[in-house]
Specification:
The protein is α/β, with parallel strands linked by helices. The chain has 12 helices and 17 strands. The strands form 4 sheets. Strands 4-12-11-10-7-5-6 form a 7-stranded mixed beta sheet, sandwiched between helices. A 4-stranded mixed beta sheet has the order 1-2-3-15. The protein has a 4-stranded antiparallel beta sheet with strand order 13-14-17-16, covered by helices on one side. Helix 2 runs antiparallel to helix 9, helix 3 packs parallel to helix 9 and helix 10 packs parallel to helix 12. The chain is globular, with a radius of gyration of 21 Å.
Length: about 400
């Protein structure tokens, strides 16, 4: 359907491809063409398309109960929270429906903890340039990219953005109103920039020294994507609050804000709520996703095969002047190029590989956590071919 005839607001620069079927690492369009998927719905279908155990659990739940209300006990939600808290190495969970809502909840919890529990007038959140935290008014204000803020003025107060990898900038931004520092371990939408481990530890220590909270946005990096259940596990830091969505329910819309036990006192009855968060359907998908990941040790697998993918890309693209850097963590990988990569994304699609950009000059690869070595090699060959057709690699 053309944009002129569509009843949708045209908020997406949509590719005309119409995808109608998925299985594992593969997608098919309405013309019967087959594509190797290295997008995973933007880090959502971490178990591949249509994972059987998750589908079976959803079918079973559909025949039992879809929705009640969070005014009642929801046993599946309690089970999902217990399992998530266990793998997250945390204490308390608030379920919602998306990454932006998860980050909204984190911002609200940080403010309320200081204002209602500690009796302190703290409300400011410090974030990093190049970050991305969502599209609601609060989370786009927290985002360290001006492009998402255009046309939405006035923005809410209470957010300060500082340059990344500058601990002194954070120190100078902290004041008597600061409630938290909010970071991503890998700035995925900002160009696939992993934080330097020492810088991350410095931020954690600064938060402890200043008595403020550390929030980690794991919306894209959580659920095994980076080679651990959560990316901050790989960094060895312990945030007070962290968030997750995307891969938490294998494509069923869900998100969660996760925190430490001492924060429970801030979120009491009536302080925050959601209609659809943690429904029996969503909770069933979350439970099945976590159980599948545990059974098949998928975070460990992502670390192993992500290293393989990174190594193959670096070897194949070495010496090509168009490629500036291959970087990432686990199965979240970016290829920074010398020029915009939009035409390369389309060229890859024409060869049967789906991938996406992260900013204008970075190719982002997000295969599912079951991706095979053969599929990795296919993807490397296609990515390399579209790059080498644009700028050939000089002969050794």
């Amino acid at each position: 359907m053309t944009q002129e005839k569509s009843s949708l607001f045209q908020t997406y620069a949509r590719n005309p491809l119409a995808l109608v079927k998925g299985e594992g690492s593969w997608l098919w369009d309405d013309q019967g063409n087959k594509y190797l998927d290295f997008m995973s719905g933007l880090a959502v279908t971490n178990l591949g398309h249509a994972p059987k155990k998750v589908g079976d659990k959803l079918k079973e739940q559909i025949d039992t109960l879809w929705h009640t209300s969070n005014l009642f006990v929801i046993p599946k939600q309690e089970e999902a929270a217990s399992k998530l808290a266990e793998v997250a190495q945390a204490d308390a969970v608030f379920f919602c429906n998306s990454g932006a809502e998860s980050n909204e909840a984190a911002i609200k919890l940080a403010r309320r903890y200081f204002q209602k529990v500690k009796g302190e007038d703290r409300y400011e959140i410090i974030t990093l340039g190049k970050s991305f935290h969502g599209r609601t008014l609060a989370t786009l204000t927290a985002t360290g990219q001006d492009k998402v803020k255009e046309g939405f003025l006035p923005l809410p107060a209470g957010f300060v953005t500082v340059p990344p990898h500058d601990i002194q900038a954070i120190e100078q931004a902290v004041n008597g109103h600061t409630a938290a520092v909010m970071i991503e371990m890998v700035q995925a939408e900002g160009g696939v920039y992993p934080l330097d481990p020492e810088y991350a530890r410095q931020i954690e220590q600064l938060c402890r020294d200043k008595g403020i909270l550390l929030i980690v946005d794991e919306v894209q990096t959580g659920m095994g994507r980076t080679g651990a259940w959560f990316a901050h596990h790989r960094y060895g830091i312990k945030p007070d609050i962290f968030t997750v969505a995307k891969g938490i329910a294998s494509g069923f819309p869900a998100g969660a804000m996760i925190g430490r036990a001492y924060l429970k006192e801030a979120f009491t009855a009536g302080s925050h709520a959601t209609t659809f968060g943690g429904t029996p359907l969503a909770s069933s998908a979350i439970i099945a996703t976590i159980e599948t990941m545990q059974e098949d040790r998928l975070p460990e697998r992502a670390a192993e095969i992500g290293g393989l993918l990174m190594d193959k890309l670096r070897k194949r693209l070495h010496g090509n002047p168009f490629v500036k850097e291959v970087r990432g963590l686990g199965l979240l990988i970016g290829i920074e190029c010398a020029e915009p990569v939009g035409e390369l994304v389309l060229a890859g699609q024409q060869r049967g590989l789906l991938f996406v950009s992260a900013g204008p000059n970075v190719i982002r690869l997000l295969p599912n956590l079951y991706v095979t070595e053969e599929e990795v090699q296919q993807a490397v060959d296609i990515v390399a071919s579209v790059i080498e057709e644009k700028v050939p690699t000089p002969s050794a």
